[in-house]
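Worked example 3 (structure in, sequence out).
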């Protein structure tokens, strides 16, 4: 994975998703050239974890858009530079992807893909949400997919670490991603600097207290 795909991966993972990265779309019926999908993600309805896995820990906008609390499948494209919008979420790749996600009956895949092709989010029987998500370097608006910037993903990662600074720093080497380890280390350093920074108000209070303890010199 490149750095953008890693940011996308961890953004979704810390929002309660199980993921598959760089999924290969093989040449097959309807697919002339081998391609890949940057990130696949599935989120069950009852995700919970004591550290970082509770309702207040999720990205509230994402939770609202995707309706956390139901079964969710995400097909995510990641772009770190200039890209051709017409090549995003091509129908032949969507069909391959929806079949691989396994959230709908194979017989329903063509009709589901046809519907998903026209919308960023597809509600299936009020129990399943399918989503096309683009994570890229610039703000993008589209009626065909939902978007997040790489900066949004990075900020979310850092904020999650700030919520659990001791736990994340103590366990940083258990995370397989060097990028996420670096984010944890950055936040740790930021907190250390803030805690060690001189506080002008406290310095003034200390000076006043010291002055009060000094004995007055007698005039001769």
């Amino acid at each position: 994975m490149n750095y953008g795909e890693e940011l996308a991966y961890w953004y979704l993972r810390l929002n309660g998703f199980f993921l598959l990265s760089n999924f290969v779309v093989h040449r097959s019926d309807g697919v002339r050239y081998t391609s890949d999908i940057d990130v696949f993600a599935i989120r069950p309805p009852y995700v919970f974890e004591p550290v970082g896995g509770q309702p207040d820990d999720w990205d509230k906008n994402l939770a609202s858009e995707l309706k956390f609390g139901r079964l969710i499948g995400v097909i995510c494209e990641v772009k770190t530079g200039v890209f051709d919008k017409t090549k995003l979420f091509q129908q032949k790749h969507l069909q391959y992807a929806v079949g691989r996600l396994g959230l709908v009956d194979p017989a329903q895949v063509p009709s589901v893909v046809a519907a998903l092709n026209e919308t960023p989010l597809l509600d299936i029987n009020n129990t399943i949400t399918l989503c096309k998500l683009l994570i890229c370097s610039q703000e993008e608006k589209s009626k065909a997919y939902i978007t997040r910037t790489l900066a949004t993903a990075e900020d979310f990662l850092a904020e999650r670490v700030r919520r659990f600074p001791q736990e994340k720093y103590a366990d940083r080497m258990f995370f397989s991603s060097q990028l996420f380890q670096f984010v944890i280390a950055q936040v740790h350093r930021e907190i250390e600097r803030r805690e060690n920074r001189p506080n002008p108000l406290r310095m003034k209070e200390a000076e006043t207290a010291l002055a009060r303890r000094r004995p007055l010199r007698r005039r001769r």
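Notes: The mean pLDDT is 89. Strands lie at 18-25, 35-43, 71-79, 121-124, 128-136, 146-149.
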